[in-house]
Amino acid sequence: MAQFKAHSVLPGFNLALGFTLLYLSLIVLIPLSSLFFKTATLGWGGFWEVTTGERVLASLRVTFFASFAAAVLNAIFGLVVAWVLVRYTFPGKRLVDALVDLPFALPTAVAGITLAMLYAPNGWIGHYFAEHDIKIAYTPLGIVVALTFIGLPFVVRTVQPVLADVEAEIEEAAASLGASRWDVFRRVIFPSIYPALLTGFALAFARSIGEYGSVIFIAGNMPFISEIAPLLIVSKLEQYDYAGATAIALLMLIISFILLLAINGLQWWSNRREIR
Amino acid sequence: MSLPHQLINNRKIATHESKAVTLVLITVALSYLLLFLGIPLFAVFYEALGKGWTLYWAALQDPDAWSAIELTLIAAAIAVPANLVFGVAAAWAIAKFEFRGKSVLITLIDLPFAVSPVVSGLIYVLLFGAQGWFGPWLQEHDIKLIFAVPGIVLVTIFVTFPFIARELIPLMQAQGKDEEEAAISLGASGWQTFWRVTVPNIKWGLLYGVILCNARAMGEFGAVSVVSGHIRGMTNTIPLHVEILYNEYNFVAAFSVASLLALLALVTLFAKSIVEYKVKDNGDRHPHGETE
Fold first, then answer.
1. How many other CB atoms sit within 10 Å of the CB of residue B249?
2. Is the ipTM of this complex over 0.85?
3. pLDDT per residue over B113-129, tens digit each?
C-alpha cells in the first residue's frame, strides 16, 4: 500500500490532523449525517411524497426563479462595478470598494427589515413604484431585491482580480491590428473574464438558494406565491413535522452540494485558462 | 500625412473608452451601489435616530436588549476562539504536510458554507432536540441544549466553522515550509517554531479570518432562530431581538438595536480594509492572492 503521508521533518502532524478530524466530525459531519438518518425513517416513498408536494414544489420554484433573477442582475451590474473599480479612478474609490463587502458584514436580519421598509408601498423607494401600481415588498419582486443585496459582492469580487490581470499588451496588440474598443472588449477581455463571471454568478446563486434572514421580512411569505423553501422548513418545524422539514432540508443540501461541485469545476476551469 | 497621428488616436480609441462611455459606466456602477448598499445603510441609522436620541437610548437600555447583547457576545466569545484553534490546526496539517485525501478534507471544511442557515439549525435540533438522537438521554439528565444557550453557541460555531481555516490554508500553502524546516534543523522545538516562525508569518491572515468570523458569529440569524426558541431575555441574540421588535411594529426600537449591528458591520469593513492595506504594505502574500 502506498504511504498515507509523505515524510517530513516538521512535528505536530498527528496532533493537528487528529484534532482537525475530531472537530470536523463533531461539529459538521455527525450533525449533517442526522439529515440522512432522519430522512431514512421516511423511506423513499415518504421522501418523494414530501418533496413533490405542491407547496414544496411551489416554494422551490419561487426560490430558484428569484435566486436566478438576482444572480443575473448581479452578473450584469457586478461586471460594470468591477470594471469601474479596476479601470477608472474617481474620488472616494477606496471607500466605494470597501462598501462592496457590506452584504458580507451586515447581518441578514438588518438587511431584511431595512429593505422591507425601503421597498414597502409607502417606503422611500417603494412609493415611486407604487405610483405606477408596482408592488415590490411582500411580492416575489421583494425576494429578488433581498437576494440581489445578498449576492452583490460575489461577482464583483471574483471578476475584479481577473480583470486586473488582463494584460494591457494584449489589448494594445488587438488595437494595433485594427480592432475597435468594443471588439477588444468582446473578443479579448470578455473571454478571459468569462469563467470568473460565471463563478461569481454561481456563488451568488448558491448563496441565494439557502438565504433566509434577509428574505422573510420583505417576502410577504404567501404560500405558493412568495414562500421560499427555507421558510417552509421552519414552518414544518414549528408544526413539529420533523421528518417533513428534514426531507426538504436534505433535498436542499443535495442541491447546494451539486452547486458546490459545479463551482469547484468552474474555478478549476478558470485557473487552468489563466495558466495557459 | 495625418496617418501616424490617426494611428495613435485609433490605438487610444481601442485601449480606452471615450469620456462619455467612462462617465456612463461610472454613473451606472455608483447608482447600483447607492441603490442597493448606500441607501439601505443610511436608512438603518435614519430610522434609528429619526425620532430623536431619547427614543434611541431608551431602546438600547431596555433589559431585554441588554441580555440579547450579552448572549451575542458570549456566543461569539466561544465560537471565534474555538474556530481559531481549529483553523490553525487544520491549516498546519494541510499546508505543511503531504497526505492522501487532502482535497477531500478541504472540501469538507467548506461544507458549512454550502448549507442553508435554516438547515444548520435543523441538524442540531435533530441531534439534541426533544425528539432527537440524544434527546431522551439529555432529558433524563436534565440537560437542555436546544431552545437554550448551548444550542445557540453550537450553531454559531457551525456557521462560522470555515472562516479562519479557509483564510489560513491558502496563505500557509503559499508560504511553504522552508522557514519552519530551517528552524527545526537549527534545533528549535515544535512549539518554538510555531510561535516564533509561523505565527508572525500568518498574523495578518489570522486577524482577517477572525474579523470575518466574528462578524458572522454576531450577526447570524437563520440558524440561531431555529434553535433559540425566542425566549425574551433568555435565548435572544441581537438579530433575534431585532426581529421580535420589528414584528411588534416597534420600528424605532428595532432599527435602534439594528443600528448596533450596522455599526459592527462598518467596523468590520474598516478593520478588513486596514488589514488588507497592511498585507499589501508588508509585501506579504494576501490570502486571496490579490496583491502578488
1. 8
2. yes
3. 889 999 999 999 999 98
